[in-house]
Write a structure and sequence with these properties.
Its main location: secreted. This protein is mainly β. The chain contains three helices and 17 strands.
């Protein structure tokens, strides 16, 4: 991973001071694959959010970015006040995990989001009350606008999405995926479909899938994890030989910052 303009050391120091991107419970990042996935260590991705219907049915993922805001995909932002934001969950089948349940007071979708192309597929959810931070619940750092990620960099995506075309897991899954350059990604998806507001990763034997939408793509440097993407779209069959496409946090960072500052 490389930074342009923005120093890696400076970013790590700032992140540490802000208390973001450093899990109290370290994730297992060796040899993991969500389709062809691996169970995550409980609590090791403390920013992971489950968006659920009142019935408890999970429908999308998200990332806690501070005590009041969750970042997800715009196509997940059918969220209204009666839907629930679940933090600190690992096993959907457990009733004893120390989770926090929040309602949403405001949904803000990127004004240039396109339902047809999934461009600018990002939304912010303002929580009805602040999250209490714990070793199992803490925010991820947002990648800076100046971030440039080298193709081949191994990053991680997490979620409760399908592990096959018909199977959804109870346990949070994780997979390591390499970042793919826009040029290579366009070879898979076509020149016009991949925009500057998208980042591609995968095509290496594992993939995000339905139900992972809105969830995090994170990269680590010097022990600090930063959010570089939000799960957006891919093959409906979750083909692990095709890259998945994520909303690019560096490209959309200025909108995120302006939106939070004014709301």
């Amino acid at each position: 991973m490389t930074f342009t303009i923005f120093s890696i050391t400076c970013f790590a120091l700032v992140a540490s001071a802000l208390g973001c991107g450093v899990p109290a419970i370290r994730p297992q990042t060796i040899g993991s694959r969500i389709v062809n996935g691996q169970n995550a260590i409980s609590g090791s991705w403390p920013w992971q959010v489950s968006l659920q219907l009142p019935s408890g049915v999970h429908f999308c993922g998200g990332s806690l970015i501070n005590q009041n805001w969750v970042l997800t995909a715009a196509h997940c932002a059918v969220v209204v006040s009666f839907h629930r934001v679940i933090l600190g969950e690992h096993n959907h089948g457990s009733n004893v995990e120390p989770i926090q349940v929040k309602l949403v007071s405001k949904v803000i979708t990127h004004p240039l989001y396109s339902r047809a192309t999934f461009n600018n597929d990002i939304a912010l959810l303002k929580l009805s009350s602040p999250v209490t931070l714990t070793p199992r619940i803490s925010p991820v750092c947002l990648a800076p606008s100046a971030l440039s990620i080298l193709p081949g960099t191994r990053c991680f995506t997490t979620g409760w999405g399908r592990t096959a075309t018909t199977t959804s897991p109870l346990i949070l899954q994780q997979t390591g995926v390499p970042i793919i350059s826009p040029a290579v990604c366009r070879q898979f998806w076509g020149q016009s479909r991949i925009t500057d507001a998208m980042i591609c990763a995968g095509a290496s034997g594992s993939s995000s899938c339905q139900g992972d939408s809105g969830g995090p793509l994170v990269c680590e440097r010097s022990g600090v994890w930063s959010l570089v993407g939000a799960v957006s779209w891919g093959r409906t069959t979750c083909d692990t030989l095709f890259p998945a496409v994520y909303a690019s946090i560096p490209q959309l960072r200025s909108w995120i910052d302006r939106t939070i500052a004014s709301n």
